[in-house]
Amino acid sequence: MSAVLEVRGVYKRFGGVVALEDVSLAVAPGEVVAVVGPNGSGKTTLVNVISGYVAPDRGSVLLEGRDITRWSAERRVRAGVVRSFQFPLLFPNLTVEENLRVAASGLKPYTLGEVDRRVVEEALHLFDLEAVRRRRVTELSEGHRKLLDVALAFVFKPKVVLLDEPTSSVSSQEKFAVMEKIVEVVKKSGASAVVVEHDLEVVKKFTDRVVQMMAGRVVKVAKTAEWSHD
Ligand code: ADP
């Protein structure tokens, strides 16, 4: 099986609510997969199951054919399954560069201060953040904040990056530029991405395949070019 990531027959229930019901999904190397569906359809729970924040009741998650269902979120990050950090998790009063240094030091918690500068420089370069490296997060445009968010994930050299609405709250002018850069870096680095995205224009323009969810189930999977929303 050539999939980098596989979800097989996952079920998850919260009390009486069935959040995921027999969800399966395979992501090929280099592929950008959109997960779409109305609120409450299970998209976030699926990302949480993949990243290890939620344990499925049944089913499994595989990375390059290895069963990682019982691995902690941290172990998955080290193995290359990385979720983009959400803005509230950034340190708002630190600069772009400092936030990246904190993320990079997370790779080696006992060598704080001895961060590999190349990792930070590469992330700044990949995401075109060099010009704003000394700006605090509070001084950034929403677009730059989103790029930093994803850049933090790339510090961990992901095989699969999980993006939860990377363009939400970004202005419509900035939206395409932000997504274009993210997809460019994903493709260039040979990673794959699973993107929860509401904006169908962004889905159509930047993703390879669409997984459509409804009430905890996958109701349609199609190549983006052949996909129509119904
Ligand atoms: P989406 O991301 O598509 O909006 P979610 O995965 O957030 O959907 O939610 C799917 C269903 O599971 C919803 O009915 C939601 O209320 C429920 N749910 C999600 N997380 C929890 C939780 N931690 N506790 C209880 N119910 C939850």
TrEMBL record:
PROSITE patterns to which the protein is assigned, alphabetical: ABC_TRANSPORTER_2
Keywords: ATP-binding, Nucleotide-binding, Transport
One GO cellular component term noted in the UniProt record for this chain: plasma membrane
GO molecular function: ATP binding; ATP hydrolysis activity; L-isoleucine transmembrane transporter activity; L-phenylalanine transmembrane transporter activity; L-valine transmembrane transporter activity
InterPro entries named in the record: AAA+_ATPase, ABC_AA/LPS_Transport, ABC_transporter-like_ATP-bd, P-loop_NTPase
Any single biological process term in GO: L-isoleucine import across plasma membrane
Domain ABC transporter: 5-230
Keyword Nucleotide-binding: yes
Protein name as catalogued: ABC transporter related
Organism: Pyrobaculum neutrophilum (strain DSM 2338 / JCM 9278 / NBRC 100436 / V24Sta)
